[in-house]
Specification:
Layout (H helix, E strand, L loop, with lengths): L1 H24 L1 E5 L6 E13 L7 E13 L3 E14 L12 E16 L5 E4 L2 E12 L15 E15 L4 E12 L2 E3 L3 E3 L3 E12 L7 E5 L1
Antiparallel strand pairs: 1-13, 2-3, 2-12, 3-4, 4-5, 5-6, 5-7, 6-8, 7-8, 8-9, 9-12, 10-11
Length: 223
């Protein structure tokens, strides 16, 4: 009888240990953040530029963009750029003898592939494809701007690729420096007639948003 009790006790103990191992095996680790990590930001930057136009080629540009970030590898959004260029007026009959300002802007789709996006310093290749308008005005900002007409502007198409160095200070802020080149169609406006806005620009800016809305973590679940 004692032998039977001992054998039964051993069997019960062994079965209990085996059941615990099987139960532990039912728990598996998985990554609940294997899908694309999303982000969104608002960015602005300022550039010094050179225009392929008669006279003074120096110009200043400001850019704003709103973009979605996919897995810190690709930005997709919308960008808007405004620019200002000033030159001497060789025709006193125009704009009351004031200097001439070339003023305009363009907007379009913003795409930006990113390399090493999870590191402190990364590299990106932004490109903007869109269109805009440009016009010549006196730079005194008088009431001539109160009566603008369609013929005061001419439209153009633009493709603007570039390269940026990105400094990822946190999940919420990113500083960028970079260089770009614009390819634009020709515009035709007096007093300088035919021209385009081809040329390089160099500048810096800041992106503010959330570049990684989820962090990867390990959890256990019981199947």
């Amino acid at each position: 009888m004692n032998r039977i009790i001992i054998i039964l006790s051993v069997l019960i103990t062994w079965n209990s240990i085996y059941a615990q191992k099987e139960k532990s095996a039912d728990y598996v680790q998985f990554d609940d953040r294997k899908n694309v990590v999303h982000g969104v930001y608002f960015g602005f930057n300022f550039h010094y530029a050179r225009f392929d136009v008669p006279g003074n080629k120096d110009a200043f540009m400001g850019n704003f963009k709103l973009a979605y970030v996919a897995n810190q590898k690709l930005d997709v959004g919308f960008g808007v750029t405004a620019f200002f260029n000033e030159r001497d007026n060789n025709r006193p009959d125009l704009f009351n003898g004031d200097k001439i300002a070339l003023i305009g802007g363009y907007a379009g789709i913003h795409l930006e592939p990113i390399l090493y996006g999870k590191r402190f310093i990364s590299v990106s290749f932004p490109v903007l494809v869109g269109g805009g308008a440009v016009g010549y005005f006196g730079n005194s900002f008088t009431d001539e701007y109160d009566d603008l007409r369609d013929e005061d502007f001419d439209e153009f198409f633009v493709v603007e690729p570039g390269i940026n160095i990105l400094y990822n200070f946190s999940r919420f802020t990113q500083f960028e420096t970079g260089i770009r080149y614009r390819f634009t169609s020709n515009f035709n406006l007096s007093p300088y007639d035919r021209g385009n806005l081809n040329g390089f620009s160099i500048g810096a800016g800041l992106k503010i948003g959330i570049f990684n809305m989820g962090r990867k973590k390990k959890v256990k679940d019981n199947f």
